[in-house]
Amino acid sequence: MTSTPPPGTPRPASDLDPAIAARLKRGADGLVPAIAQQYDTGEVLMLGWMDDEALHRTLTTGRCTYWSRSRQEYWVKGDTSGHIQEVKSVALDCDADTVLVRVDQTGAACHTGDRTCFDADVLPTGGVSPAGAGSPTPGTAPRGVAETS
C-alpha cells in the first residue's frame, strides 16, 4: 500500500495534469472505472477504480494505482502479491468517463488467484454453454478479447 489518509478522511488534492483532470467525467464519488487490459493479447484482466490521484500515480510511476472503495485507500497492484501491472499505455474512452490501462501483467490479475477477474463466472449467451464460452471458435473472438488455446 502507499501513503493514504485514514479511512473517512477526504482524499488529498491531486497533481494530475489539469488538462486531463478537466476532461474526466467522474461519478458522484469522484471515481472513474479503470479497465486493465493485457497490452499484447487484448485480454481484459480486471476493473478497478481511480480518482485523479490514482490516475496521476499510474501515469507517473508506470505501475497501476487504484482507489479501493472497500478499504478507502490507494493500492498499487502487486505491492503485496507481487502480481504487478506494468503500464504500457493509458487512454480515455470517447466520453472520458472510463480509463483503459494497457499493462504487462505479472501473475494473476484477480485477487482470487485467477488470471483475470472474468475467468470464474462465464455466463451462457445465445445458446453457448458456460463450459464452451471460454473456448470460442478460432478467429471468432470479439475484438479486444484474446483467444485461448
Give structural notes.
There is one protein chain. The protein is of the alpha+beta class. Helix content is 13%, strand content 25%. It has three helices and six strands; from the N terminus they run αββαββββα. It has a four-stranded mixed β-sheet, with helices on one face. A two-stranded antiparallel sheet has the order 3-4. It is globular. The N and C termini lie far apart (35 Å).
The residue fraction in helices comes out at 10-25%
Structural class computed from helices and strand pairing: alpha+beta
How many strands appear in the DSSP assignment? 6
Q: Tell me the strand order in the biggest sheet.
A: 2-1-6-5
The count of helical stretches stands at 3
CA gyration radius, whole angstroms: 16 Å
The H-and-E topology, N to C, reads as HEEHEEEEH
The fraction of residues in strands falls at 15-25%
Mean pLDDT: 85
List keywords for this structure.
149 residues, alpha+beta, four-stranded mixed sheet, two-stranded antiparallel sheet, 3 helices, 6 strands, 13% helix, 25% strand
Question: How are the secondary structure elements laid out?
Answer:
Layout lengths: L17 H6 L8 E7 L5 E7 L1 H10 L3 E4 L4 E4 L8 E8 L6 E7 L24 H4 L16
Parallel strand pairs: 1-6
Antiparallel strand pairs: 1-2, 3-4, 5-6
The gist of it:
The chain has 149 residues and is α+β, with helices and mostly antiparallel strands.
